[in-house]
Amino acid sequence: MTPEPAPGRTMVPLVPALVMLGLVAGAHGDSKPVFVKVPEDQTGLSGGVASFVCQATGEPKPRITWMKKGKKVSSQRFEVIEFDDGAGSVLRIQPLRVQRDEAIYECTATNSLGEINTSAKLSVLEAEQLPDGFPSIDMGPQLKVVEKARTATMLCAAGGDPDPEISWFKDFLPVDPAASNGRIKQLRSGALQIESSEESDQGKYECVATNSAGTRYSAPANLYVRGPASWAWSPTRVSLPSRLCV
Length: 246
Description:
Number of helices: 1
Number of strands: 20
Helix content: under 10%
Radius of gyration: 27 Å
Distance between the termini: 115 Å
Order of helices and strands: HEEEEEEEEEEEEEEEEEEEE
Mean pLDDT: 87
């Protein structure tokens, strides 16, 4: 027999109630991937570098994969560098080859709830094909050694028409000054200023100049961060065997 509800009370069917609870839990838990950074079309220089950046959010965290012409990218000149536990990825191509690398590159973000895709086109030009205004690196970063907690400045100056925008990569990953709580700044000149240097700032830096004509990378330069003790120098005493003494 089905029990009668107590006076003044309404019985809620058990199965629909459980379904509703599941929907509420899902609304505050798992979610499909959503892109927060998408790759952009690029025109690069033969022998140079191209980097595509892709990042997504979701729960569980999505994984990023890269495809070229329907196949997973695979080449000694192609490198995939992950960040954000695999939810972010950089596809780096170096050195660029005309025709061979010109293609549509597809970024796919996948988790247990779904899959999303976005893509970008890469064009590659020979030096004699570069249009007027193609970016130039007039001054690239140089090797620098800085004492820990001091300020380091990596210089970069670029030309082009229109004036190119300058961005930075460290160890092949994009530098995001906004994520440094003000410790890392990109100056109006394009230089990258790193205050209160930490060991984690040590690495290989590249500045990138981009305008509507194309993209050009500087040569990489290393930044080394050293503790105060490593700067001290003291002579070492050497004792010679008595038979060598005059």
